[in-house]
Amino acid sequence: MIVLEFKLKGKAEQYRIMDEMIRTAQFVRNKTLRHWIDNQGIKLVDLYKQCAIMAKEFEWAGQLNSTARQASAERAIFAIGRFFANCKAKKPGKKGFPQFKKHTRSVEYKQSGWSLSADKRCLTFKDGFAAGKFKLVGSRDLYFYAPNEIKRIRVVRRADGYYAQFCINVERKEEAISTGKAIGIDVGLNHFYTDSDGETVPNPRYLRKSEKALKRSQKRVSRKKKGSKNRKKAINKLGRKHLKVSRQRKDFAIKTALCAVKYNDFVAYEDLQVRNMVKNHKLAKSISDAAWSQFAQWLEYFGKVYGKTVIAVAPQYTSQECSHCGNLVKKTLSTRTHICGCGVVLDRDHNAGKNILAKGLKQAGINLNTVGHTEIYAGGQTDLYSLMVAKQR
Questions:
Q1: Helix and strand totals (H; E) in the chain
Q2: Which of 36, 41, 306, 381 has its CA 20 to 30 A from that of 127?
Q3: Over the stretch 70-95, which tens digit does the pLDDT of each residue have?
């Protein structure tokens, strides 16, 4: 399953209609949740029936395509199911009781209520709202995909316009070239990551670099009168700046993860609990700016696409253990050099990268004597690759 995104180019009246579509989808989702709260014993499957009832009860809700109403109800059903799963698993802390949505920014269609032009460069919405035809602006081409392969379309409103996301039921596979290399990745704040070879990737700190401009835009919003058009314009400019930072962060995570996977046959990284780490208010902003979770998600994704082995290992004691002798060397967070009694002196993150690689190889069941080096075998570059293929079989 792949997702292709295009910007929707239309008229101001069409965008206003699209806002009404999004508000209707939000209403259907909240109304479905309210019905479940009022009738606790009801089955989740029965909530789909509420979509047809709402279409008859509210004329404007009936203008939204039936599959779009079902997709909106599915959002509430998914939230309820996740709450039950957390309760059943006895997850510590809050279980995530479903909440009513106030600022929904998307509406989702299935395989009806829309159509593509013959050249697949225009999208037309054909439900009761009649938003009309939009031109698709993007670098990808939908011409290579059959209409029945497009399973869903999601319309998303962002600060810089409206976008259509096409969910296409095809499997992405890229040709993998064996490099015979393995690395362990230790993410950090000083450097974005340091691998087991001592190579580092600098931390871009996009939010920190844009902080002055963001504060200036936020002040302009605060000075405007509430409810005025000037305030809405200032809010939109602030949203565009935040959107740029998030796109920069995502682009960096994608490109860095792609390089790590393409040029290595085996990648091990720390399975960090970022949600718990950001509770440290002194480091929360820097940790969020680094986007470690996003980087880990793209590592896993590209590992499947290129058929490479990507393993998450437990982060406990990766910085404290000596990668050479295994002794525990206690260090505070400010201590950046690993000095062991066996004579090993390494950068703290470099030592952690070696430990992460060793843990990953052990977890994968690959036993090699020269763990911790890039070229970790003496019998040729295909040795590591053949070992991993045999393990997967």
A1: 11, 14
A2: 36
A3: 999 999 999 999 999 999 988 888 88
